[in-house]
Amino acid sequence: MPRSAARGRHPGSATREQGPGAPRPGSRVRRQLPTSPWLFAAPGILVVGVFILYPFVSTLVNAFTDRRTLMPGEYVGLANFRELLHDEMFWTGLRNSTLYVLGVVPALVLLPLLLALLVQKNIPGITFFRSAFYTPVVASIVVVGLIWVWLLDERGLVNALLEAIGVGKVGFLSDQWLLLLSAMAVTVWRGLGYYMIIYLAALANVPRELHEAAQVDGAGAVRRFFTVTVPAVRSTMVLVAALSSVSAFKVFSEVYLMAGPDGGPAGEDTTLVMLVQRTGTGLTGRVGYASAISVVVFLVTVVLMLLVLRADRKEET
User: Fold this and answer.
1) In terms of pTM, does the model score above 0.70?
2) Residues contacting residue 214 through CB under 8 Å, at least 6 positions apart
C-alpha cells in the first residue's frame, strides 16, 4: 500500500472497518425488543384486565346510568347518588359497616400480635397450636359460617351451656346487635391466624439484644411489650390496620350466612356490600344503583387507607 494512502487514513480506522452486512454510518438501526417477557406476562395481564380493570371501569360507567339486569339503561347523571342520600337502607348499611370496622380492627391489630408472641416461645406442643390457629384461614367461609350458626342457634351448643350454668338462652341470631357482634367475633376468629403469620415475620427481625437490655434495666414483660415490641413492629401494625379496615368495611360472607339474605330482623344488620348484592342481582336488579353503592364503598375504603397512613406519619414525626 502506498505511504500516501496510509497517511490519509485516520488513526485507528482499521479497527472500525465493518463487514458488508453492517449498517452504514448515519443509518437508523431498529431495536427489536425481546418478545418472551411479554409472552410470560400476557396471562397475568389478561387476568387483571378481565377480572379487575374491566369490572372497575364498568362499575364506574353503570353508576351514572339506570341500567337493570336485562336492560342496557340510559345516562342519568348523579341521580343514583342523590337517591342514596334519601335511602334509609343505605344509611343502615353504612352504619353497620362502620361499626364493623370499629369493632373488628382494634381486635385484629392487637390479638394476633399477642398470639404471635405466645407461639414464639418454646412451649411443648406449641407447633400444634400454630397450625390450629391458622386452620380457620384455610377453611371454607361457608363451612365456618354454618358451624357458627349451629353453635349460636337457640338450640345450639352455646345456649345449651348457658342454660346448664343458669344463664338462660340468648338470642345471638335473633337480636340485631348480638347478631352483629357475633359476626364480628367470627371475623376476628378467622383473621387471627392470618395476621399472626404477618406478625411472626416482623418479630423475627426484632433483635434479642433489645429485650435483653430492657430486662437488665429491670423492665418487666408488659413494659418490654410497650417499649420494645410495639415500636419495633409499628409499621407492621399499620399494615394490619389497613388490611383489616378494608376487609371489615367490605364484609359480606359472615353477616350474610348468619343473618340471611334479608340482613337479619327487618334488615337491620345489612352491610353495604350486602345491599349491593341484594340490589343489583336478580332478573330485575338495579345494576346502576348497585354500582353507585359500590363506588361509595370504594371511596370509603380509599379514605380508610389514607387515614391509617396519615396517622402513621404523624406518629413518625
Assistant:
1) yes
2) 223, 224, 227, 228
The answer to whether residue 41 sits within a structural domain is: no
Domains of the chain: total: 1
Contact predicate 102/88, CB 8 Å: no
Q: Is residue 204 part of a domain?
A: yes
Does 281 fall in a domain? Answer: no
Q: What is the pLDDT of residues 116-137, one digit of tens each?
A: 998 888 777 788 888 888 888 8
Q: What is the pLDDT of residues 150-165, one digit of tens each?
A: 999 988 999 999 999 9
- The CATH number covering residue 256 comes to 1.10.3720.10
The x, y and z cell numbers of residue 280, run together, are 343489583
In a domain, 136, yes or no: yes
Sign of CA dihedral 231, 236, 242, 243: negative
**Residue 6, pLDDT score:** 46
Please, what is the end-to-end C-alpha distance for the chain in angstroms? 78
Residues in the chain: 317
| Mean pLDDT over each residue of the chain, to the nearest integer | 87
For 192, residues 6+ apart whose C-beta sits below 8 A from its C-beta are 108, 111, 112, 115, 133, 136
**What is the domain range of residue 141?**
89-266
